[in-house]
Structures are given as structure tokens and as C-alpha cells.
Amino acid sequence: MKSYLRLLPVLIIFIIGAGLLSCTDSRSSRKGKPNIIFIMPDDLGWNDAGYNGSEILTPHLDRLARDGIRLNQHYVSPVCSPSRAALLTGRFPSRFGILGPIAGKSTQILPDDVTTLPSLLAESGYETHITGKWHLSLSADHGPTQYGFKTSYGYLHGQIDPYTHRYKFGDATWHRNDQLIEEEGHVTDLITEDAIRYINETRDKPFFLAVTYSVPHYPLAEPGEWIDLYEDTISERSRRIFAASVSHMDSGIGRIVEAIDRNGLTENTLIVFSSDNGGQDNWLTTEGLYESRYPPDPVLGDNRPLRGWKGEVYEGGIRVPALAYWPGVLDPGVMDRPIHIVDWLPTFLALSGIQEELPDDLDGQDIWPLLLDPGSELNLKPIYITGAGEAALRVGDWKLIELRTGVTELYNLREDPAEENNLADIESHRRDELISLLRRQQEKDGAAVHR
After folding, report:
1. Residue 357 shares a structural domain with residue 402
2. Which of 142, 256, 351, 426 is at a distance of 20 to 30 A from 35, taking alpha carbons?
3. Portion of the chain with pLDDT greater than 90, in percent
4. Do 365 and 401 fall into the same domain?
5. 80 in catalytic set
6. What angle do CA 290, 291, 294 make, to 5 degrees?
7. pLDDT of 402-419, one tens digit each?
8. 239 phi and psi, to 5 degrees?
9. Could you tell me the CATH number of the domain that includes residue 128?
10. What pTM did the predictor assign?
11. Pair 267, 402 in one domain
């Protein structure tokens, strides 16, 4: 008995230590599967984010950019559906023949047998949800829950009336879990509130949350409180409403970050923000759309100092405001290496400890070493971008462009980020090397995509 009593303190210490070790292991396991939130506005141009020098007020994005990593050379596709396909698959969207917006009465879909980011995460224990724009099919039969999202909310089409939640021809498109529904409220508020609801309800499990806003894509209608912010600073009506829509969204992003903080999830949540393509200069063809409730918008986005607009493979169409934010994990700074939206799938899987599940045919790569150390010597893959009859290839500092007219252009983006000096004739050897690399990428697309 006395021997037992002498051993009792040791046993108590052992039990307490085992309990602490168990808690530590649990925390480590939880941190091994971080929450991931991907926020994507629609048509936000380079100079439409306050932290890039815009006149538009985006205090919450500015804080994320200040306290996170600004991704100054983050590439996407020139239009929306391809960028979304690239994010979900880690492959260039031309591999699926998705070269432009899925619009009108199109029956095109992201192939339903493709392996997706949410499906891989769900298989490894993640909860997965999307709130906002889908745009990888126009039918609820091929909505987000068919591609790995356990739950979904928002709209299927590529654009939406902010209040009626109808597509431009009157099609019903607002849904929950791929079932069409009717609701009242401004689309920006509904998307934000659903994201906050999801965070509150899912806080005890690892989750992947895609928040895909409808703004600042046409058509735009904003409550007076947001328009009033610009009454004295922006005289052009359409640009003023555009700015109001961005500030409204920025407020929603602030509320989402606040929900993360309030639920004690900050230290285990990575937030990535990226526009889906560059800004659109105007929207002038409105006859027959939305029952003619919306006038033409002669001034919308701003991509300065980059060249070009949405729909083009110049920098203004494909290089977008982007950032990564994870306080305590990612040091604040700027990353100036060229990366592409296809890189997020392998990066997220590596962070979640399931990189062994990576498909063999990925175009993206794990860029986490670059986020931890922007000076890392990580060798980056070529960035291949297709548009409407156009193509571009970025390798290091060099960018090759093939226009639909057959003209070839070559730019050194380190020395000429505004793409003003075409070096195709002067650097003919380098031009020919990049053309050869471009052809290899086009061969992977298949014959149906070749020009």
C-alpha cells in the first residue's frame, strides 16, 4: 500500500501529462487541416482595389493586404467561367474546352467526371460550401453539389439582377443546394450573410468556403448609403455605382473576417482573395436585358497602369488584385513572382496534408514555399492563358502573345509591365522558343481547341 502511495504522484503526473499530450496532438491535428476561404469578386480590375491606389474605398481589403501577402503577379483567365474551372481543377480551362463565359442557353458544363478541389477536400474530412456565383453550368442538374461541394447557395448563371436574382433574360437561377428558390434582399448582403452563417455553424470542423460575389459585374444597383460615399469624388454615374458596389462588398468581407475572429478561427484559417478576371471598361448593349431596367454603363472598371481589359490576354485582362492572409503563419509582404489560379488546388491540398491525392495531370503546382518565403528559388511552371481566339504564355520575365489576327507579340514584363514595347522581331530567337512551348500547351488541349 505504501509503495502504491509513493507511486501515486508519479501516476498523477503521468495521467496529466498524457492528457496534455492528447490535447496538444488534437490541436496539431486540427491545425494540420486549416480552414480555407477563397473570396472572388466578379470583374474587379487592378486599380479597383484601394490598396492598389484606387479612389474606391476598400478599408477591409486594404487591411488584409497590409497584414497579409500582396500577390502582385497573380494570373487568371480573361473571363469568368475559365477562371473558375481553373480554380476547381488545378488545370488550364482550355483542357476542357472552356474558353469563354458559359452564357445564354448554353449546355456546356465542367465535365462531371473531373476531379475537383472540393471533392478532394471533402474526401479527406473537410466540409465544403460555395456561396455566390457558380457559372460552370447553367442547370441545377450540374450545380456545385455535383462537383464536391457538400452544400451550395447563390446563383448558377454568370450575372444576376441584384434584387430580383434573375438572369438577364429572366431565367430563374437563385438556389440553395442546387434547388431553385426565391428570396428577398440585395445579392451582396445575401452572399455575405450566408458565408457568416456557414462559419458560425461549421466552426468545429475543417472547412473550405468559396465566397464568389456577383459585383462589380453589370448590372449594378446599390443602396444609397454606398452611393453617397462617392457623391463628391466620382462624377460619372456608372463609375460611382461601380465604386459603391465594391465598397459594399468590402464591408461584407470585413464582416466575414470578423466572424472568423469571433469564432476563434483566425490562427487556423487561410484567406485567399482574387478577382476572376480584369476589369471591364463598359457595358453598352442593354436592350432586352433585365426588362430594360438598367441603362448602359460607359465607365466601369479600371486596370491602370496595366494594358487591356476583360476578355483580352494583355495584363489588364488577366493580372488581377490578389492576396493571401493568415496572421501568425504568413508574414506581411509582397510576392512578385508570377503565379496562376491553377496553383491553388495543389497548394491547398499540400497544406491539408493530402498531396498524395494530387491528380497526375495538374497544370498547377504547390506555391506554399513562395508564400512562406517570397525569395524562394522555387522553379515555376509556364503560365498558359487562352482567350477568344488569342493565347498567351508567361515564362519568367517573358510573355508571348498570339492575337486572333495572327500577329505575335513578345514583352519583357520586368522592364515593360505596361506592354508597350513589342520585342518579337528584336528577340526572334526567344520568340521562337516560346512559340514552341506554346504549341506544346496547345497540343495538350486537343484538336477541338486549336485555332
Report:
1. no
2. 142
3. 88
4. no
5. yes
6. 60
7. 999 999 999 999 999 999
8. -70, -35
9. 3.40.720.10
10. 0.92
11. no
Q: Give me the pLDDT at residue 20, please.
A: 37
- 413 and 282 within one domain: no
What nine digits make up the cell of 136?
460552370
Surface-to-core class of residue 275, CB atoms within 10 Å of its CB (0-12 exposed, 13-18 middle, 19+ buried)? buried
CA distances from 147 to 110, 113, 137, 141 (A): 9, 9, 11, 11
CB 399 within 8 A of CB 393: yes
Q: Are 351 and 324 in contact (CB under 8 A)?
A: no
Q: Mark whether 304 and 411 lie in a shared domain.
A: no
Domain that includes residue 47, residue range: 33-372
- Does the residue 136 lie in any domain? yes
**Assigned domain for 9 exists:** no
Q: Which long-range contacts link 356-365 to residues 24+ away (Cβ below 8 Å)?
A: 357/120, 357/123, 357/124, 358/90, 359/90, 359/115, 361/91, 361/95, 362/90, 362/91, 363/90, 363/91, 363/92, 363/95, 364/90, 364/91, 364/340
- Domain assignment present for 5: no
Strand partners, 35: 269
Asked whether residue 257 is assigned to any structural domain, the reply reads yes
Instruction: State the pLDDT at residue 32.
Output: 66
Residue 424 and residue 287 share a domain: no
In the block, cell 486594404 appears at 62
Residue 138 has pLDDT above 70, yes or no: yes
Strand-pairing partners, residue 130, are 152, 210
Mean pLDDT of all residues in 215-237: 98
pLDDT-based confidence at residue 447 (cuts at 50, 70, 90): low
3-state class (DSSP) for residue 320: coil
135: Cβ contacts below 8 Å, ≥ 6 apart: 80, 81, 84, 101, 102, 156, 157, 158
Percent of the chain scoring above 70 in pLDDT? 92
Same domain, 166 and 287: yes
Confidence at 244, pLDDT banded by 50, 70, 90: very high
End of a domain among 344, 372, 400? 372
Distance CA 202, CA 128 (A): 10
Given the residues 60, 74, 129, 135, the one annotated as active site? 135
Considering its fold, how many domains does the chain have in total? Answer: 2
